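Q: Is it fine to ask for two folds in a single conversation?
A: Yes, each is treated on its own. Send the first.
Q: Here.
A: Result:
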Amino acid sequence: MYHAADCRLCERALEVVRDAQAELGFELELVDIGGDPALEARYRENLPVVEIDGERAFTYFIEPDAFRARLSH
């Protein structure tokens, strides 16, 4: 999950992801884009960004049921 400090959408998305992680037990990597010009350019306008297996799966909002369904594919 790509995120940044003081990002309210990121905080909400992380809650959804952590709840699903507690239930389903997947690996989570958090990447703070702050201070990295390449990551800022790629992700800032779409935060938060959740990638699953290297593929962009969610931006802005993560609906819990859709997230769980995506993980099961």
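Q: Second one now.
A: Result:
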Amino acid sequence: MLILSEINIYPVKSLGGISLQNSEVTDRGLKYDRRWLIINEEEKFITQRTHPQLALIKTKISGNKLILGHKTKEVSPLVIPIHHESVETVLVTIWHDLVEARIVGKYADEWLSEALDIKCRLVYMHDETLRFVDRTYAAENEIVGFADAYPFMMIGQSSLDDLNNRLKEKLPMNRFRPNFVFTGGEAFEEDKWKKIRVGEVTFSVVKPCSRCVTTTVNQDTAEKNEEPLKTLSTYRSVDNKIYFGQNLLHEGTGILKVGDEIEILEWK
């Protein structure tokens, strides 16, 4: 039996994630997932690829507030209203997209700039902003928040177990920052799926997830290493890209819960 074992959201792209027991699937992904983004002085997005210290910022949602803290520095938490009153907007660049976002506020910019030791700003994707998924894989003009390209990413626990059996030091799942983790099935079984149902929501498995240097960043210390990319490159590389996990698109909305059964509707 295939069982949904983890649900994770990452409210601010490339900062710490939040593990949930249940979550709402909205039009652009899990509720609150990657709706905030850190940008540099050129209004371009920044991530752990170039700034591994982002891993040290932890996130929490309490009521109608997003709360940021630092894992190693003794600083007061940053408290951000989820429902933004700010109407000041800026055009931000994320990969090949130019997206309108709302500026959270000077207080947030100052807190993050000090915590990360870089000059940066925090922005929010409001509901009126529509960022479309790559039309090569989209079916119904699906939209996405500030995730790299797709609203969801799923990995099987068996796939991580297979990798860890090849590594000298085992790695936790948070290196790969998935939205969904499932138990049961063989290693990389998710590669064979085309359409699945989880709880009350149907998903299309549209594209394997290519992995970058963020996977080499320890999410507790921000230290970088050569693994897991070194080992993954020996058996999960296609056309000079390393794949681990699958990107998903969804049909409709609904509630997902840890413990939901995964039903395979169509195989590749």
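Q: Anything structural to flag on that second result?
A: Two points. The helical segments are 106-116, 157-164, 229-232. The radius of gyration is 18 Å.
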